[in-house]
Design the sequence.
């Protein structure tokens, strides 16, 4: 069911905040005392708001960020190794239940997702950011493929996204060494879109999300679909896919409005339909 209201008040959840305003859904990870590390409850809430945003016609863009001094430090290890010495959950089950569904939802969501990395993004937290569409970072933010430091391999799509963003050589070095890189280095590597002063990060991310929310939403979603599919397609397949998706875009109200606005030499007023 669609909820076309311009503003939906903050929806209280235990580990994140979610509100919709001016067609932008704002998700703030809110476990600042543990650097917004992910446990099963946070993962469940994140899946829930992503499903809600997908269903809500009033949401035309998402903005994801973290509260406090970190974006997300990855898995909450206290959940994996309980302090009372009891046996923790099986690691494959945690990935399958908590991480993979969130990454799949971010990629499949046919609405743009802006990520504002406000501090450290480590392990699964770094790869959560890389699964978003446009990533901004504060100048004091950092990224680290921390898995090797505890004897694990990158998950949450890290071995998929990172080589495609920075190339195989850099991706291997970042994963094998587990070195922390700065936001400026991430920008230079092509991992992210822009770097801003910490005090300006959220306002810049907000402006970008609002800009995307005013664009033709269906076309944005089809662009995501085409780019995602291109990663496993040859040229002929992709040319056919572009043709087919262009047919869908050409049937939208926003396409008709865009053409009309061009002919009338005025700014188009897109509605997302």
Sequence:
């Amino acid at each position: 069911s669609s909820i076309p209201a311009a503003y939906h008040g903050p929806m209280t959840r235990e580990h994140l905040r979610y509100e919709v305003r001016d067609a932008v859904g704002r998700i703030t990870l809110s476990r600042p005392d543990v650097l917004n590390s992910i446990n099963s409850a946070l993962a469940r809430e994140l899946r829930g708001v992503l499903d809600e945003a997908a269903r809500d016609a009033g949401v035309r863009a998402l903005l994801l960020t973290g509260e406090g001094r970190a974006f997300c430090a990855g898995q909450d290890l206290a959940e994996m190794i309980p302090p009372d010495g009891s046996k923790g959950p099986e690691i494959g089950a945690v990935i399958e239940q908590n991480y993979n569904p969130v990454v799949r939802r971010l990629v499949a969501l046919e609405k743009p997702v802006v990520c504002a990395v406000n501090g450290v993004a480590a392990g699964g937290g770094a790869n959560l950011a890389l699964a978003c569409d446009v990533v901004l970072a504060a100048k004091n933010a950092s990224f680290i493929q921390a898995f090797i430091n505890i004897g694990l391999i990158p998950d949450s799509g890290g071995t998929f996204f990172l080589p495609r963003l920075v190339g195989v050589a850099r991706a291997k070095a970042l994963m094998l060494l587990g070195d922390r890189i700065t936001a400026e280095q991430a920008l230079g590597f092509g991992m992210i879109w822009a770097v801003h002063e910490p005090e300006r990060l959220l306002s810049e991310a907000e402006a970008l999300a609002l800009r995307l929310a005013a664009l033709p939403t269906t076309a944005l979603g089809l662009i995501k679909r085409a780019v995602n599919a291109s990663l496993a397609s040859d040229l002929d397949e992709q040319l056919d896919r572009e043709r087919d998706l262009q047919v869908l875009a050409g049937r939208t109200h926003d396409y008709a409005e865009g053409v009309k606005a061009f002919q009338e030499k005025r700014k188009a007023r897109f509605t997302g339909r």
